[in-house]
Model the fold of this input.
Amino acid sequence: MRESDLKEYTKEPTPFAAVAVAIIMSCIVMFFMVGCTVDSSNGLQDETSTRTGAYGVTLKPSTGMYVSFETIVNVFGDTMACMGMTAQDVTVQYVSYKEYFNGAYGAPWGGWIVNSNLVFVNTDDLGLGFQREAGIDKEILRHEFVHYILYYNGADPKHGNPMFAQCGLGVNTYN
Done:
């Protein structure tokens, strides 16, 4: 390689080239940052009417949801697939435990009402140092759906069942 060729490859970048590279790198970083935040929270949503979807999943009027009705149906389907079991007709409702149960129901995140098809998600601030968001709502739903699917199939719906560890341990920050 000639010395003149070497000088051509080692030239200082022009100010335009440096600015262009900086803009491109900024766009790439912003793209990844936005991509990381989209799934962590779908924003707070309310549902004012009763909706029924695939698998007979019913959502009663609810407030303070971080997931959509479609996500709830998908979580139910994914949980059944993970367990290798099927079920129908689960009913979900997001409520303030303080208001709905007058503070009498002790499950902090959510609960399955034993021997029924009812799953509740607690919308109260639990004071545990972090806030509910879409990921936590999905973990709550998976866990409560495991209870219901086991019950629906005549299996033991208690926490000792290995299906909980496999498909619905619950909220990682709490368990």
